């Protein structure tokens, strides 16, 4: 069994950083999941169990264990080494590596289990994890259900996520914080929309939540939870070890017992955002490792991240400290914005009863304001606008009333004409660079573009662009 | 049109900007013209309210349905359209519970947890500020051009 495990390790190791421990343990884990104990073998299984649940796990172990190429191979979590299709790769060269690292780690069944599990995370830097596995002869499970693989992958990715963070949050698989997990997981949007804050951490948490949620749904989740419960004591060690492994194997040995806070920052490859995975919480040194407190910490971290994002959004809040004051500022700001909308809408109702507005002018102004565009662009666009107005003044006759003509069509035509005209405004287009394609979409959305006819829409000579006859 | 795209560089410093300003502008301007066309000039208040609703609608459409607040806004608008009721949005910040005040402010905030609430608030604030900028720009251009 050991040899087999070692082979598996080797094969996986050959793939790269990830620890391929799990490949062999899957089947065994499944069978013995409820029996997880401190035995090394069982500890080894856990990775397999994990493998079980992550069908998408690209770990080679998944492949080696599962005869059939799992779909998970394709969905390699970020930073995960490419799954190796050929189990046979291997072993000796990587095996040679193992012995070096092995002695550094305590042969702790729980630790191993954690390490094995963590190794599934497939972080690029998790070389150290593999250290743990070879030392323990655990029969890897032979089968891996798709769920297991998928969950594993999720966990793997999740683990990679926290690397960036100071803290590893989450723990999808280990904790029975079902309500928290489910809650966290449900907001899958967070993983994607966490980018809102353009914060890597945000994405990590979001994706971790998603992973956590998905993992909780796994079939083997229960089994894993049981197993993890028993290992909870050593979880920190394992997590720490895992975390460290991402950095370097050397660091692993040194920082095994230290807080991982800074370790994660080194591994950028793991920090791919928006990955679904568990957010693993790492209990820092001197902190409670209770599952509830860990969950609380995760939650607090998320909240503080979001508060930071909000702080950037609300003007003048960079120096405000404290959540209460910050919240007050945010509430005031949102209220003021809403009041402004109301006020401006009243103003718009009164001021412009019958006008088609100049898109170009608006865009130039708005976008110039927002992007700090050059004044030349503004002048440029306005120059183009006004001549049109003056030239068509003669045509308009029905001063404002004729605009009742067909404002919506006029608007369309305006849009159609003005957009092409605006095309000449390179400066203006600079501001709207990213919107031009949307503009096209907008045009298409308007339906069949009415042919640019010679109909002139009379407008007040107030600077609004008028549609001119194209032939002019 | 394509020439524009090819000619322009990308000075946008914020590539992950939320809903596009241009889309917002189009939607809002279109709605604005429709409102102006359909409401009688004798009731500027009514028109103002419609414009305000149009502003929120265009904001919500631009943000997409992936956001809880945009869904809540659209839901509220559709229901209002049927029941013809105007939702009072007078809010007061009680020092006691800021989270509640925030929930009342942000559409759809009542049913979400605190973390999500903060996230939605950030996105909502972004869109709101864009909308305000747009409306201000319209008013400015209208007032400056309409000597």
Automatic annotation (TrEMBL), chain A:
One of the Pfam families matching this protein, by short name: HLH
BHLH domain sequence ranges: 287-337
Location within or outside the cell: Nucleus
Entry GO terms, CC: nucleus
Family annotation (InterPro entries): bHLH_dom, bHLH_ZIP_TF, HLH_DNA-bd_sf
GO molecular function: DNA-binding transcription factor activity; protein dimerization activity
Keyword tags: Nucleus, Transcription, Transcription regulation
Skewed-composition ranges (Low complexity): 206-220
Region (Disordered) residue spans: 1-20, 172-248
Family membership: Belongs to the bHLH protein family.
Protein name: BHLH domain-containing protein
Native organism: Ensete ventricosum
TrEMBL record, chain B:
Cellular location(s): Nucleus
Keywords linked to the UniProt accession: Nucleus, Transcription, Transcription regulation
GO terms for biological process, alphabetical: regulation of DNA-templated transcription
IBH1-like N-terminal domain boundaries: 27-80
Predominant location: nucleus
GO cellular component, one term: nucleus
Pfam families: IBH1_N (PF26576)
InterPro entries named in the record: bHLH_AtIBH1-like, IBH1-like, IBH1_N
Name of protein: IBH1-like N-terminal domain-containing protein
UniProt source species: Ensete ventricosum (Abyssinian banana)
């Amino acid at each position: 069994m050991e040899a087999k495990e070692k082979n598996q390790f080797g094969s996986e190791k050959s793939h790269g950083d990830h620890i391929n421990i799990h490949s062999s343990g899957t089947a065994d884990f499944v069978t013995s999941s409820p029996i997880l104990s401190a035995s090394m073998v069982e500890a080894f299984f856990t990775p397999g169990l994990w493998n079980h649940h992550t069908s998408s796990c690209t770990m080679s172990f998944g492949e080696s264990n599962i005869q059939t190429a799992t779909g998970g191979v394709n969905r390699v979590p970020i930073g995960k080494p490419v799954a190796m299709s050929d189990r046979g790769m291997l072993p000796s060269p990587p095996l040679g590596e193992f012995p070096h690292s092995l002695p550094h780690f305590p042969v702790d069944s729980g630790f191993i289990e954690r390490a094995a599990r963590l190794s599934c995370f497939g972080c690029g830097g998790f070389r150290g994890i593999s250290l743990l596995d070879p030392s323990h002869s655990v029969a890897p499970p032979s089968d891996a259900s798709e769920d297991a693989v998928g969950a594993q992958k999720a966990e793997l990715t999740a683990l990679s996520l926290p690397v960036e963070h100071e803290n590893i949050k989450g723990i999808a698989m280990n904790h029975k914080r079902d309500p928290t997990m489910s809650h966290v997981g449900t907001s899958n949007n967070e993983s994607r929309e966490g980018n809102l804050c353009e914060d890597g951490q945000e994405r990590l948490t979001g994706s971790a939540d998603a992973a956590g949620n998905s993992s909780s749904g796994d079939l083997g989740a229960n089994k894993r939870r049981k197993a993890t419960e028993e290992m909870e004591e050593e979880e920190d060690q394992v997590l720490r070890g895992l975390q460290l492994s991402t950095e370097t194997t050397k660091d692993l040995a040194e920082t095994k017992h230290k807080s991982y806070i800074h370790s994660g920052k080194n591994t950028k490859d793991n920090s791919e955002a928006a990955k679904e995975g568990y957010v693993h919480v790492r209990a820092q040194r001197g902190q409670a490792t209770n599952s509830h407190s860990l969950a609380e910490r995760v939650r607090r971290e998320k909240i503080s991240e979001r508060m930071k994002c909000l702080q950037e959004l609300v003007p003048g809040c960079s120096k405000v400290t404290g959540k209460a004051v910050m919240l007050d500022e945010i509430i005031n700001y949102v209220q003021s914005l809403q009041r402004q909308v109301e006020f401006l809408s009243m103003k718009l109702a009164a001021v412009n009863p019958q006008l088609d507005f100049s898109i170009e002018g608006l865009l130039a102004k708005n976008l110039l304001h927002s992007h700090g565009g050059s004044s030349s662009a503004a002048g440029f666009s306005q120059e183009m606008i006004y001549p049109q107005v003056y030239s068509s003044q003669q045509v308009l006759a029905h001063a404002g009333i004729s605009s009742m003509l067909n404002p919506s069509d006029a608007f369309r035509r305006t849009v159609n004409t003005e957009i092409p005209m605006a095309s000449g405004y390179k400066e203006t287009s600079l501001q709207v660079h990213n919107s031009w394609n949307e503009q096209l979409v907008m045009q298409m959305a308007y339906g069949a573009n009415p042919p640019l006819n010679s109909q002139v829409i009379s407008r007040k000579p107030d600077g609004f662009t008028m549609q001119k006859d194209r032939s002019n | 049109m394509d020439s524009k795209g090819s000619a322009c560089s990308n000075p946008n410093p914020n590539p992950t900007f939320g809903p596009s300003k241009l889309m917002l502008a189009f939607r809002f301007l279109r709605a604005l013209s429709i409102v102006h066309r359909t409401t009688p000039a004798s009731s500027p208040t009514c028109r103002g309210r419609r414009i305000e609703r149009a502003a929120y609608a265009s904001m919500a459409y631009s943000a997409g349905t992936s956001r809880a607040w945009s869904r809540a806004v659209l839901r509220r608008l559709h229901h209002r359209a049927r029941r013809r009721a105007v939702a009072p949005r007078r809010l007061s910040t009680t020092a006691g519970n800021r989270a509640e005040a925030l929930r009342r402010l942000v559409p759809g905030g009542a049913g979400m947890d605190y973390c999500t609430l903060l996230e939605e608030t950030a996105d909502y604030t972004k869109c709101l500020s864009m909308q305000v900028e747009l409306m201000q720009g319209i008013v400015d251009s209208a007032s400056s051009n309409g000597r």
